[in-house]
Write a structure and sequence with these properties.
CATH class of the largest domain: Mainly Alpha
Helix content: 55-70%
Structural class: mainly alpha
Radius of gyration: 19 Å
Strand order of the largest sheet: 1-2
Number of helices: 14
Number of strands: 2
Length: about 300
């Protein structure tokens, strides 16, 4: 799960706000702060003066500060979407935590749905909307094709994170087998259910990722021509989110320095040989926000997973 605080810096042109989320440490310590985080992502974001958070907790102040700044910047529609997105995030976290505590291995379908929630893609996208001056009309953002695009962008990021984090999870499991529990990662689940090798499982995850990305490109290009300006910016945000998450995963130390004391202990899978994947190639065309600004060509991402 990506628990860092997200800086919302719009990659495209046009009038924007800049917002920085400072609640990453609170949301990251799930085992110790789950009750606090569940409360913090609901009522306090809706009403900073609700007084539901314990004053002695060191994260209460930052959460209240974040909620107050949210109310000063965001529209009521943006706040409601953000709160709902955070609730879905923690619904997924609760499912993940229960599986780990009970030593459960989910089915592939159950895992992918829960992963879609606790990857925090919806909450990240909701913060992106806060950076915009104009609300996207409900009739536009709730249109089935747009909702599908939101889910596909989040799922591609989730699968990239699974590929990046698999080595880290194996590293911890080899050193702490009694406390690690099941490895909740699609690579490991493919090995368990399909009885295939690790290399083949990795290829299957890459292939699934590529198929979703190709479909995202196809559907996005169908939606763009009739989209209002605010929706065009939103689709551009989704496009940039996919590439930005991938590039961040390559460089960040959390995947190569698993415990903070062994830098370089794990090699980035995007730079490791995994063999060719029988996957669909995403198109090269990218979304524009109307001002001519687009994200870099992401077809390179799939090539680097397989290079």
């Amino acid at each position: 799960m990506d628990t860092r605080a997200y800086p919302i810096l719009r990659p495209c042109t046009g009038p924007t706000r800049r917002v920085r989320s400072s609640c990453g440490p609170l949301f990251g310590r799930r085992a110790r702060s789950a009750p606090l985080t569940v409360r913090s992502c609901g009522r306090p974001l809706e009403s900073p003066t609700a007084g539901l958070l314990p004053p002695e907790n060191p994260f209460t102040g930052p959460v209240i500060d974040l909620a107050e700044r949210l109310h000063s910047l965001a529209t009521p529609t943006q706040r409601r979407r953000l709160v709902d997105a955070h609730l879905s995030w923690y619904l997924g976290v609760a499912g993940e935590r229960a599986a780990r505590q009970q030593q459960l291995t989910p089915t592939l379908n159950d895992y992918l749905y829960t992963r879609l929630l606790y990857v925090a893609g919806f909450s990240t996208i909701a913060w992106l909307q806060v950076s915009q001056l104009d609300d996207i009309p409900d009739t536009e953002i709730n249109f089935p094709a747009v909702h599908a695009l939101t889910e596909m962008a989040s799922m591609v990021a989730a699968l990239d994170d699974d590929l990046f984090s698999y080595g880290k999870e194996l590293w911890h499991a080899s050193r702490h087998p009694q406390t690690t529990g099941p490895i909740l990662n699609l690579v490991d689940l493919y090995q368990s259910y399909d009885q295939c090798s690790r290399e083949e499982a990795q290829r299957r995850v890459v292939a699934l990722r590529d198929r979703i990305l190709a479909r995202f490109t196809e559907v996005r290009d169908l939606v763009l021509p009739g989209a209002v300006q605010a929706l065009r910016r939103y689709l551009s945000d989704l496009t940039c989110l996919i590439r930005g998450n991938y590039e961040w995963g390559i460089e960040v130390g959390r995947y190569t320095n698993p415990d903070g004391r062994h830098p370089g202990a794990i090699k980035s899978p995007a730079r490791s040989p995994t063999g060719p994947a029988p996957s669909a190639r995403p198109k090269a065309s990218l979304a524009s926000d109307g001002g001519g600004k687009t994200c870099p060509d992401w077809t390179d991402c799939s090539r680097r997973w397989r290079s």
